[in-house]
Design goal:
By secondary structure, the protein is α+β, with helices and mostly antiparallel strands. The protein contains ten helices and 25 strands. It has helices at 18-21, 113-117, 120-128, 140-143, 153-191, 256-259, 308-316, 318-327, 339-343, 352-390, and strands spanning 14-17, 22-24, 28-29, 38-40, 56-57, 65-68, 73-76, 85-87, 92-94, 98-103, 147-150, 200-202, 207-210, 225-231, 236-237, 240-241, 247-252, 266-269, 271-273, 280-282, 291-292, 296-301, 329-331, 334-336, 346-348. The strands form eight sheets. Strands 3-6-9-4-5 form a five-stranded mixed beta sheet, with no helix packed on it. A four-stranded antiparallel beta sheet has the order 2-10-7-8. The protein has a four-stranded antiparallel beta sheet with strand order 13-22-18-20. Helix 5 packs antiparallel against helix 10. The radius of gyration is 25 Å and the shape is elongated. It starts with 13 loop residues before the first strand and ends with a helix.
Length: 391
């Protein structure tokens, strides 16, 4: 590239009001009286992504919505700190809790505009001008008068080409991860199925199912109260643990052992989306003296009979997921299971030798996943750095 981002000369750049940079497209549409089928809500936008990977249907929504066209950018004006701004590729209707923004080509190259919206310069300003408590929102009247420094038009094409090139790298790594998950899921279902002639036994015969502590439990007597970290449902994902944010809870000293996690416990969530009920992973004592919430089950196996890792694969397989969904209590788009249902899960019990062979292959998959995830994280960090060097 001709432009050296590390020594980018911004002395000749100009400042523009946001309403000079982009238009706020406020064309309204009634979902019941339009031929447009696609609906894009804020729930369909991924944080820090330019791409819309999923859509809803107009039949799912009520009330007037906004109309958007290919090339427009949907920007979530609520909770701007989530950094949701994605490029529209097909004509659609979208949430009224978003701005539909269209670049002014006389001021900014439309190809560069989405990256500008993802820059710290813009996003930090968006957060600063948001108003409200639980759901801070940006008002157009405030946003339109904000001023931003932009590169000259003759540089914008080259900058856009560079940033889209980096985006292609990120997208290729994401595609690899998607293909990995498809391959891994296929392997799980091939490895764990009921056609092998393995014996089956109820989970309760080979493991103890431990329920957690209610997070809002009141403690009347403050004597011998201790503070401990504890896991919430948000920390337990399908195939991994998200330990980026850990809360603490106060508990009586005498109750600590009852709710404490042990290395090797299989953590399973009580509820969630239909396809996520019973999601979980193995606790490896990442945080000492950690407890768990009452909406998480800790399954402690008899290790001389069944490997917790083998059991985790079983719960992640179609066999396990179908069992949870079949017996779960369902409300709206959510489902939940109780401890009695979990204890009744029939688990396969091949020899430990066979279990260990399968688990060894599983760990190879996990190592590959760690490598792919690391590469994706590095590329996303580089992409973010490039955007902020430009803006």
């Amino acid at each position: 590239m001709k432009i050296d981002l590390k020594n980018l000369d911004k002395s000749g750049w100009q400042t523009y009001r946001f309403d000079e940079i982009a238009r706020n497209i406020s064309q309204r549409v009634d979902p019941t009286s339009t031929d447009i089928e696609q609906y894009i809500g804020l729930e369909h936008l991924d944080k820090e992504s330019l791409h819309i990977r999923r859509v809803g249907s107009k039949s799912e929504v009520k009330g007037q919505k906004l109309k958007c066209f290919p090339g427009d950018v949907i920007f979530g004006k609520r909770r701007a700190y989530q950094r949701k701004a994605a490029v529209v590729t097909e004509e659609a209707i979208c949430s009224a809790h978003a701005f539909v923004l269209r670049a002014n080509p006389e001021i900014i190259n439309p190809s560069l505009f989405p990256f500008f919206l993802h820059s710290d310069q813009f996003m930090h300003r968006a957060v600063d001008i948001s108003v409200g408590g639980l759901s801070p929102t940006i008002n157009w009247g405030t946003l339109k008068s904000q001023e931003f420094l932009l590169p000259p038009k003759e540089q914008q094409g080259e900058l856009a080409e560079l940033l889209w090139g980096m985006d292609e790298v990120v997208e290729s790594r994401m595609l690899l991860l998607t293909q990995y998950h498809m391959l891994f899921d296929s392997w799980i279902n091939e490895s764990i199925n009921s056609k092998r002639g393995w014996e089956t036994h109820p989970l309760s015969s080979v493991a103890k199912v431990q329920t957690g502590i209610a997070k809002n439990k009141k403690i009347a007597d403050q004597n011998d109260v201790i503070k401990r970290p504890y896991l919430r449902v948000a920390n337990v994902q399908d195939g991994f643990l998200d330990l980026s944010e850990i809360k603490s809870i106060h508990i009586k000293k005498k109750d600590e052992e009852r709710y404490s996690l042990q290395k090797g416990d299989l953590l399973l969530t009580e509820g969630g989306d239909f396809d996520k009920v019973g999601r979980g992973f193995i606790w490896q004592d990442e945080i000492p003296n950690c407890l768990h919430q009452n909406h998480i089950f800790a399954v402690r196996v008899q290790s001389d009979i069944i490997s917790p890792w083998f059991l985790s694969l079983m719960t992640r397989s179609n066999y396990g997921k179908q069992y949870f969904l079949r017996c779960a209590k369902k409300t709206s788009n959510l489902a939940s299971i109780n401890s009695s249902q979990l204890k009744e899960l029939r688990v396969f019990l091949p020899s430990l030798e066979i279990q260990y062979e399968i688990v060894e292959k599983m760990h190879r998959f996990y190592h590959l996943h760690a490598s792919l995830t690391h590469d994706l994280g590095s590329n996303k960090s580089l992409q973010k750095s490039l955007i902020n060097q430009v803006f």
